[in-house]
Amino acid sequence: MDLRIGIQNSPRELGFETSLTAAEVEQAVSAALSGQSPVLRLTDSKGAVYVVPAAALAYVEIGTEESRKIGFVG
């Protein structure tokens, strides 16, 4: 699944692919925004860890869990 995370006062967003489900990502974001965790911690599909302070989150866009289709329709 593709994720995009906007960070306040930063012109660029974090974009990466993760093996987490949409529900798992939503739960982590909710925990960070509700104050249960001071950071949002997510791991991408290659094992890299991203840690963003909860107070700096601008938005989190959760993509679809479907794989992208390549080719022509016709």
Automatic annotation (TrEMBL):
InterPro entries: DUF3107. It comes from the Bacteria. This is DUF3107 family protein. It comes from Agromyces luteolus.
